[in-house]
Amino acid sequence: MNRLFISAILVLFTLGACNKDDGSKQQLPPLTQEGKNILACKVNGQVHIYSGKRTTFDDNGVNYDRGIDKVRIAADNSRYNDNIEIILPYIPDSVMVGVRYYFTENEVASGYASYYVGNGSLVYKTSNKSGFIQFNRLDENIAAGVFEYIACHNNDSIKITEGRFDITNP
Description:
Blueprint (H helix, E strand, L loop, with lengths): L1 H17 L19 E6 L2 E6 L9 E6 L4 E7 L4 E7 L11 E3 L9 E6 L4 E17 L3 E12 L2 E13 L2
Antiparallel strand pairs: 1-2, 1-10, 3-4, 4-5, 5-7, 6-8, 7-8, 8-9, 9-10
């Protein structure tokens, strides 16, 4: 009887360990250009998927803002306790599809990307040539493309890879 009991406990323990979902098996969604309101990437190798339209500053979701002098892509998800922001301070009509725009430290003259941890108390930012954004579609309605970058804070860095986005403008 004791052997049967111990065997049953071992089987249950093994099955429970196999069902652990740590997000490492999660896949990135495919690249799209249809306004699916999704931004996905790997943050230090772990898949992060941000989805849904962000309607207020405190919402989870994604945004594509097309101002008169910049293009802004942003994502927030309380599940990951982080958010991503990419800004190109250019007149939107001058941004070309299929061209890689490299990030720099200069927030005024060139594009940059940030990674915020928690409520924004810890900010990681790109430095010269530490990443890029490339639009596969950019018009008044939809921004879609790819990105990757390394963002730094003091001596620490976060690597954002295989980034993709497909977001509608308000």
